[in-house]
Specification:
It is a single chain. The chain has helices at 3-21, 32-58, 71-76. 66% of the residues lie in helices and 0% in strands. It is elongated and about 50 Å long. The longest helix has 27 residues, at 32-58. The chain has 79 residues and is an all-alpha fold. Helix 1 (3-21) packs antiparallel against helix 2 (32-58). The protein has one domain.
């Protein structure tokens, strides 16, 4: 996925997150909390991929060699 593709995915996820958070909490879908958690993880994975791609480019490596890391790895950075 290109940088633009990753950025577009991030924008889509943020828009979905905002949509779920907008309005009255009583009228949110029953699974909104779970979906918000999933979005958070997916956003972290996207940002991680974008950082990898930028770092590879900075050090004259191929950004296409960057890969999406699993959620456990990405979420483990903050623990």
């Amino acid at each position: 996925m290109s940088d633009d593709g990753v950025q577009n995915k991030i924008e889509q996820l943020v828009a979905e997150e905002h949509e779920l958070l907008a309005g009255d909490a009583e009228h949110r879908p029953a699974d909104a909390h779970e979906r918000l958690s999933a979005i958070e993880v997916e956003l972290d994975r996207c940002w991680d991929l974008l950082r990898q791609r930028r770092a590879r480019r900075e050090f004259s490596e191929n950004p296409d060699d960057a890969s999406v890391r699993d959620a456990k790895t990405v979420e483990g950075y903050w623990q």
